[in-house]
Specification:
CATH class: Mainly Beta
CATH topology: Lipocalin
Helix content: under 10%
Order of helices and strands: EEEEEEEE
Number of domains: 1
Amino acid sequence: MRIFAVFAGEHEISIHNNFWNGVETVRYNGEEVSSKFSWFGATHRFSVKEDGEIADYDVEVGFTLNGVSANIWRNDRPVMIGLRRGSIR
């Protein structure tokens, strides 16, 4: 099940979770780039080539009182901060 999607420039990062088997996946422009077993959230790291340069992403997924959220960084710069922990690097 797709939880949410965020755009970093023209590129879509989407987070998916299967609540039945606990598998959490991250997709970049529709392509799966990371998959982990997690009941309470995990940190996903992946690198992709964007406009001829390598971009390193960290996606930390977790739960808040409002549901599932995430912190997303691109090359150590925040794209989205939705969790309190890890919001300052």
